[in-house]
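=== Discrete structure encoding ===
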Amino acid sequence: MKPAALASMLDDMIRETKKGHLNWLLEMQSTDELDASVKQIIQEDGKDWTVDECFVSFSCRFRGKDQLFITYEHIKQCNGQMRSENLLFMPPMDVRFFDVGILSPYIVDGNAVIFDKFHQLWELLMQLRKSGDPHVSLKIFDPYE
């Protein structure tokens, strides 16, 4: 899917979500809250960088079709510096793995606009979930289980 078409689709999904017309299942796996002693360390530019990874799966039925998006953020931190890379995947509904290698055939050309729209969608869904909206379900998975 081209970025412009995806951006338009996400705008429509956000509007439909605000109206209460979409049911979302979010699944998340993140190393963010783990103790630093168990996080991956990589060396780049002569420095040790602590790595965090976060996968979020967004799925719903939209315009009569099941939709699945998986976002991935790879965050490196060292001495107050942070570097982040984002990827977006649109796999078939039965490919719900939080593994970049498995998801790589389904990568989508994302840009800053697309990732901003996913961030807007995430914030909206978290706000709705916090308010007890029954249209949003969240499952959190331990990255080491």
Summary: The chain has a mean pLDDT of 93. Strands lie at 24-30, 41-44, 47-62, 65-78, 81-89, 136-141. The two ends are 33 Å apart (CA to CA).
